[in-house]
Please model this.
Amino acid sequence: MDLSVPFQLAIITVVAFLCQWLSWRIKLPAILPLLLTGLALGPLWGVLQPKELFGDLLLPGVSLAVSIILFEGAMTLRFDEIRGLEKTVRRLVTWGALVTWSIVTVSAWWVLKLPLGLALLFGALVVVTGPTVIVPLLRSVRPVSSVSRLLRWEGIVIDPLGAIFAVLAYELVVASGQDGAILHTLWLFFQTIGVGAAIGCAVAFGLAELLRRHLIPEYLRSFLVLSSIIGEFVLANGLSEESGLVAVTVTGIVLANRKGVRTDDILHFKENLSVMLISGLFIVLAARLEMSELSQLGATALAVLVIIQFVARPLSVWLSTLGSSLNWREKSLLAWIAPRGIVAAAISALFAERLQQNGVPGAEKLVPLTFMVIIGTVALQSLTARPLARLLKVAEPAPRGFLIIGANPVARAIGAALQKNQYPVVVTDSSWESIRSARMEGLGTFYGNPVSQHADQYLDLVGYGKLLGLSPRRELNTMATMRYRLEFGEQNIFSLPTQKTEKEVKHEVAPEHRGATLFAPDMTYARLASLLSQGAEIRKTRLTEEFSFQAYNETPGRQVWPLFAIDPREHIVVFSAEESPEPKAGWYILGLVKEDAAKEEKKAEARAEAAAEKVAAENKSEDKNESKTHKRDEKTDTKKGSKQTAGKTQQN
Model:
């Protein structure tokens, strides 16, 4: 099927988005549908022809894209995140990688009958995991923070090291039989790391100074960093092959941990760019495969995959985590997750082409073998990692909790109602009196400013997915909604409205900065506080076929303001001025209910009558008891008198 270049590019872009969206809907890592789609569009249906589409630009373009993805991943690595786990990370990317390399090399040489040099190269290729596969998998699996951080650090740091291992193995294959081949390989190893680290540090410190001194305008900051990363990658590779990945990784880690340098906007731009690059790369690289090459591998290749998954990875993790603070559950999940990604695919294609030109036997198997490992590990772990994490109880809880800005009476009342219905709540405030009152009511608390650096470090948001700005200070609500917009998602950010007057309209915060308007346009903090002080209560009401949502709102003798709706699956929806749910039978409504004055008086009278009846019943019961006691005493006195009379008679 011959399609025009623009049409093929459009197909890649649209299909990549659909795969990402589908993975989000079905809660699976995007890499699995991306790989399957690439195989379908390429070797199966012949819609995409990457070699004809990109020509000689394919592999260089893939390398540049990988460098950007790796830099973005390195920008998320902060040393304070792995405090206490530093030794485990070092072991995973050194001894753990060497164990995996050795086991895969031996199995490829023994099971697949590959030449030893080629088996060594294959082992080096499948050592790497990488952010292209780890980050989407973690987004779906959501393991506990210790496992998540270890996997991210391992995946990003191991990428350049795996590339270096592959270069060393390639040099050994090419230089086999020559004098000094091993010494040349060792020199190449240290040269690659040295050149990459030096260039990476130089670029990082240069960028840090430019950004810290504000010598670059805001709209050019991301452009500066992107162009610098591409430039240093090409420069480092020109000086020493595959040192470019080391350079961009070092630059990202140094920038992320450099004090006084704001990188949030750069990281946000790079995250969006990385999602697009990862999506396109998986489709393109999968589409350039030949199904005949995969089908010729046979059962022996599957045996190697089994050894990688069930022998090499568990042994590597066991050795790397000896003496660590991880428990056996965390170690088990860590031993299961190690999907192979883009770096392995890109480097295998590059070296296979060179080895085939040099006439190395078995070189044609390198790419299909590598892709077999990629597809196998990605498919297996994408489908099983989340259920395994839940089974081992090392998966983060679903983000059903609420972060509430403010610990005032209104926030405490709403928080208590949510917590009573099994929705976790943490209230934040800088007022110790308010925090103390919240703790006395059994609510989760954070004492401090929710947008402070202290909160970034110590406010644990695992299991929390919505923000309610309930502070009477609208500026604090606005800052909190802006700070947590990316973390929770725009659709999960809410704040109270402020009372508008003609003079105050020009002082209002723009809607895009304050999130959705909580409950109703006129439901300000002052009104909520007033209603609660007048006796209004937050109650839970079940809707039925006979008692609909309309009937709930129109119940005579009371006023209601719906706050939250809970569907039969216990998914909670917040009522807002912009969008209100349409609850049906079987739903529950958490609403603020205020009885009318007459009805309140009747209820008060009924309560008073009930109390009076209770007192009367208690008094009557006491009277009966006294009467019984009196009669019992009379009988006792009568018996005593009879005995005394009988005694006197006997004496006479």
DSSP finds 26 helices and ten strands in the chain. The chain has a mean pLDDT of 84. Residues 597-651 form the longest helix (55 residues). Residues 401-595 form a domain with the Rossmann fold fold (CATH 3.40.50.720).
